[in-house]
Amino acid sequence: MSATSNKIVEFYVELKRRKVINTAMFYILTCWVLLQVGDFAFPVFEIEQGYFHWILGLFAVLFPMVLTFSWFYDLTPAGFVRVSPFVERRTLENMTPRIDRRVSLSGESMSQIDTDGWFIYAETGPVEGLEYNISKGVIIGRAIECDITLLRSYISRNHAQLQLQGEHLTIEDLGSSNGTEVNG
After folding, report:
1. pTM
2. Which of 3, 7, 113, 180 could cross-link 173 (Cys pair, CB 3.0–4.6 Å)?
3. What is the b/e burial string over 15-52, where b = at least 16 CB atoms within 10 angstroms of the residue's CB?
4. Distances in Å between the alpha carbon of 183 and those of 52, 144, 159, 180?
5. 78: DSSP letter
6. CA 64, CA 102: separation in Å to the nearest integer?
7. Sign, CA torsion 171/173/177/179
């Protein structure tokens, strides 16, 4: 798919998310119903047909304003609510932690947890309390595509890679701007 058609699809999805398409359809349907009622009611109440064209013009002028308003606001039972400008569309496919020490171990004692092999345990930061098995090459970085994502400004998109070479664990800096240190 080309970049242009991809942007068109993204714009269409954003229009649907913000309910602009629903608003446009509702507005057009409401205007059509009002014009049908006016077409019937104007002769009954002896209203000049010229006013019918003014109402049609008013509906046409208000249409872009209604669409613009619906881009920024959503009508809810609580009233008008500002639509958030961004929704995370990417999905995290990171490694699942082996242990989450932030919650109770649901009766499991530490002796029942498999301790064979290498693991990495986060003592501070956004993944504090999580422990990950290292069974293959693991990339750590800020990018969502990394195996372990650390959303911090001082972490590069692809910061470092942990690799098993036999029974030894090595770490390789992937050209990060702040570097990677081992044991200080």
Report:
1. 0.48
2. 180
3. beebbbeebeeebeeebeeeeeebeeebeeeeeeeeee
4. 80, 26, 17, 10
5. T
6. 50
7. positive
Contacts of 161 (CB under 8 A, 6+ apart): 137, 138, 139, 140, 171, 172, 174
144-181 confidence digits (pLDDT tens): 888 888 888 888 999 999 988 888 888 999 999 988 88
Q: Is 97 helix (H, G, I), strand (E, B) or coil?
A: coil
The pair of structure tokens assigned to 2 is 């080309």
Name 100's bridge partners.
130
105, 117, 127 from 109: Cα distances, Å: 7, 19, 21
Other Cβ atoms closer than 10 A to 156: 19
